[in-house]
Amino acid sequence: MKEKRAEGLLAIWADIDEDYRRTFREWHNCEHMIERVTIPGFYVGRRHEGVDRPGYYLMFYETSDSKVLGSEPYLRSLNNPTPWTRDSLTHFKNTVRAIYALKASAGRRPPVDAPYLSVFRFNVESGSEREVLQWYSKEHLTEICSIQGVYRGRLYEVDSNISGIKTEERKIHGASPDQRRYLTLFEMYTLDILTDKAWQEAMDGEMVKRLRDIHQEWFWIDCALYAPEMTLIR
To answer: 2, CA 20 to 30 Å: which among 19, 117, 179, 202?
Structure first.
């Protein structure tokens, strides 16, 4: 089967009420992700839980491009939530949602879904976007992905037009837009690298100081579901 490239990303961060987490995972595994990955242009859905924050989840879907996330089939689903979805979304707290377009990638696709994810959200120093993003895309991602323990790094930029679309589901969970424009996902097979000298030096260079509003988080994988007949995503 032809290998496909995912250039769109929907990401949702949320705390889930403690007494609802088992039901939430059942709903997300058995209904919601199945519904989503059968929409044209959706490739895979994943759910990650915070390493040091139980009940805090990052849910994301990789798509052919960000336009899929403004398509009629997807919006129809968002505006017609099932009863189980309506109930589940009321248990989302501190929800943040954004839609992104892929800007750059380095490293290699994991042979299986990576067990850990390092997530960076940030803005860039005003007036230096072009220079900083060129460094980030051409040098920083490659440097990080050369560290043993890191599979792949991907840089995304918010698609603000599509992210701002109002839907019925959004009314229920009340997600706030992310105030940070850029997102990086580093797929890793161990968290030990976070104390590695090479990782720390790469994250403390002069160009890194030109990033603004940095927010770092670490997650472990909880569930992954691929679209029908999907095999390889790079």
So the answer is: 117
